[in-house]
Amino acid sequence: MNSIVKSGVFILMLCLVMVVAQVHVAATPAKRVVVENDIDGEDIGVHCASADDDLGFVPIHPRGQWGFSFHTRFLGTTLFHCRISSRDSSHGLVVYDDNLHRYVCDTCHWSIRSNGSCLFSSDVTKVDCYDWVK
Ligand SMILES: *[C@@H]1O[C@H](CO)[C@@H](O)[C@H](O)[C@H]1NC(C)=O
After folding, report:
1. N or C: more exposed end of the chain, with fewer CB within 10 A?
2. Domains (ranges, CATH) in the chain?
3. Which class for 105: exposed (0-12), middle (13-18), buried (19 or more C-beta within 10 A)?
């Protein structure tokens, strides 16, 4: 092959790799979960995990927030579950489930309150509030 054909083939391959990479990224969009402590004067502890990742225990001060980003699985569903602990209670919360939140939020912002939690689809748009399940 002469060098012009060679570089033509190289550029074609490069384009192919870029197209495949973009399709992959588009198929598994980046999502973000933010957990905010909106309980006055009380620290909370948050421990989140999915089937693949255990994010460990994270303390959050009042009005503080913590978050994480992830790509949804190409096959199967992504689900992150958290245990939210305060001084005298502990509650489970599904902070991200493909089946529930895929089209609801890209940044799923959770406000943790003493009687429950509220989901915002951005920092300002409220989706709904959920009282803690006893
Ligand atoms: C908590 O209580 C407030 C005031 O009664 C109510 O508006 C809200 O829906 C309750 N639940 C949550 C999760 O905020």
Report:
1. C
2. 30-131 (2.60.40.10)
3. buried
